[in-house]
């Protein structure tokens, strides 16, 4: 049995590539790296990798995290600039005995010493959007955009190994040096091959407060199925935030257990994700809330077409 689940419809091509590797009995590590790299390399997806939207200074700062569910080894980078495919750097860091989470210039020095590809991750379109926003910022006092299009992926290979990974350029117009939940183990991602894995997307400042990916895996370890675990974790924490802070912003989580069963939790009206399994080709799903419960359905061709138009706009 193999399986893969990823946040957002933008991950479809990556999931297709990753699933082919899993079919050919490659490892969960290979599959997750290929899946996330596919999203990082596509400039039309402006919340991840190449063409990611810049911070307030006009610089694309990238965050990425990776976890091996067999070893519980973790690697992560935060605020890294000028290097292609931060997920690959995070995977390499997970192989180190110490210094597994590097940020800023330290992460960049490590990437340079280990031969990772140097690349200007800005595109003319991403800078054009930044300039437009900067002008409006000065005129209308607009703050950072609360986007939440992190790519988060869980993979399960035919040998029973599981991995979790994330990659993002973070909030558009964020402050220089801002890091959200995506590279934080337990917040943006968590996996244990004996149980399962989870990855989050949304407003990192909220997600990191609840260690949500770890919480979903913990609930699965107590016997909840993936859908129950994800739905319960997101709903309960969203209610806690409303009670304590009078505000709960966008939070979504995808998860999969070591049997290939999957689930999602979200507090937004519409959330898209992609799933592929041994008995199911890659499918884009959409969520809807019906009578207070999360339901999901396969995305129609028209919705996918409109989604892509929006992405490349």
UniProtKB/TrEMBL annotation:
Keywords, ordered alphabetically: Hydrolase
GO cellular component terms given for this protein: cytoplasm
Active site: 150
Marked site positions, Cleavage: 149-150
Pfam families attached to this UniProt entry: Asparaginase_2
Annotated residues for binding of substrate: 178-181, 201-204
Molecular-function annotations in GO: hydrolase activity, acting on carbon-nitrogen (but not peptide) bonds, in linear amides
InterPro entries reported for this sequence: Ntn_hydrolases_N, Peptidase_T2
Protein name listed in UniProt: Isoaspartyl peptidase or L-asparaginase, Ntn-hydrolase superfamily
Organism, as annotated: Sporanaerobacter acetigenes DSM 13106
